[in-house]
Write a structure and sequence with these properties.
single chain; five-stranded mixed beta barrel; two-stranded parallel ribbon; 4 helices; 11 strands
């Protein structure tokens, strides 16, 4: 009797387990503390509107990094000038037949204007401060006004327990959908406040 019961139980489990695998909600591979606009601006060396014009990926310390040459269209805060070009380093990319993807990392597409919060790196390039939280693509609607759009690959964001703030203070909430001119003024003010201390 026990062997019949075990056989029926095993058959039932083999039927249920694949269904559970299909039902399981997706998990994010990246978890970051959500940054407020004030913290994002204070941690950045500069903020610019730029257009990636070229890129190359290479191995560094067992990881792939992509270096994008960013043409600065509009300096928002910091010492860069319009027309400057800088190298912007992000983690992940493709070298030969090997690709690496880093969830939660900024992704720059050639020719697509973007607002980026920048911070210097150890190799002389710049990086996006706050990873994907520090990047906002510019999209134009039917009114032809460029508005900020948060990155879609933020991963999971958790509240900052050391610096509690309202969810509306999060950079992605404060800037999403804002016209570029309004957002630039808001970012510049937050950057000045964070760097005058």
């Amino acid at each position: 009797m026990k062997s019949v019961f075990r056989g029926a139980l095993c058959a039932a489990l083999w039927a249920v387990v694949p269904a559970l695998a299909l039902w399981t909600p997706p998990a994010s591979a990246s978890v970051s503390v959500e940054l407020s606009l004030d913290r994002l601006a204070a941690g950045a060396d500069a903020v610019v509107v730029g257009t990636p014009v070229a890129r190359r990926a290479l191995w560094r310390g067992g990881r792939i990094y992509t270096y994008s040459r960013l043409h600065i269209d509009v300096p928002v805060a910091g010492s860069f000038r319009q027309g400057d070009e800088i190298w912007l380093r992000t983690r992940g990319g493709i070298v030969g037949d090997v690709g690496q993807r880093v969830d939660g990392e900024a992704i720059l597409a050639e020719g697509v204007r973007t607002v980026v919060f920048l911070r210097g790196t150890d190799d002389g390039a710049m990086a996006v401060y706050g990873r994907a939280q520090g990047q906002f693509r510019l999209v134009s609607g039917s009114d032809a006004v460029e508005r900020l759009q948060p990155a879609s690959n933020l991963g999971a964001l958790v509240p900052d327990r050391r610096h509690p703030s309202s969810p509306r203070d999060a950079a992605r909430t404060a800037l999403a959908g804002r016209p570029l001119d309004d957002a630039a003024a808001l970012i510049a003010e937050a950057w000045r406040n964070g760097h005058d201390r």
